[in-house]
Amino acid sequence: MKEFPTADAALEGVTDGMSIMAGGFVSAGSPTNLIRALVRRGTRGLTAIANNIGLGDELDSLAEHGQLAKMITTFAIRASGSRTTHFERQWRAGAVALELVPQGTLAERIRAGGAGIPAFWSPVGPDTVAAEGKETRLFGGRPHVLEHALTADVALIRAQRADERGNLVYRGAGRNFNVPMATAARLVIAEVEEIVPTGSLDPEHIVTPGIYVDRLVRCPAVPVRWQG
Fold this sequence. Notes:
alpha/beta, 29% strand, globular
């Protein structure tokens, strides 16, 4: 594990066309500093994997600057048609691709990717658009859809605190998608509010072991720009 002085420096080697997982559930646990650094970096043609992309969401800034090629997500379109995101407008114009995944299925596909499980059968989505183009099979008389695991080139995650070996502690709901994403990418970059000496963290509070974390950067909490 290597510590970097800034979020921009921590993205060294992140290049066009990569797949990027981004943790967070709306505003909770979002790696805001790393996403903003990715915007500044200008990296393009990205496939982003995240729970949501919406108004005030930093991921939508990537869409605004034309850096996204595809989103794999659960929440991509707002319930209200009165205000739309940059991503939604681009998707409706056919400029970007969207793979819409039920939230529990998204979490399990990422978890499976981190566990080395290539695919699994899910009872969610038969006879819906979620099953289009996918193999289905009956188990116990109930239809299931074959879902493939998700991995990525890079995972951008956020935790509350880390020690010098990269062991991570999260705050409340900030655990969300950050935890499985830390296991499912070839390069894991974590932003944290505080880095403490090794041995300072209660082992019972460590959720992500440092063996999963490749890069660490200390970043202040960022005010949420979420717009309702």
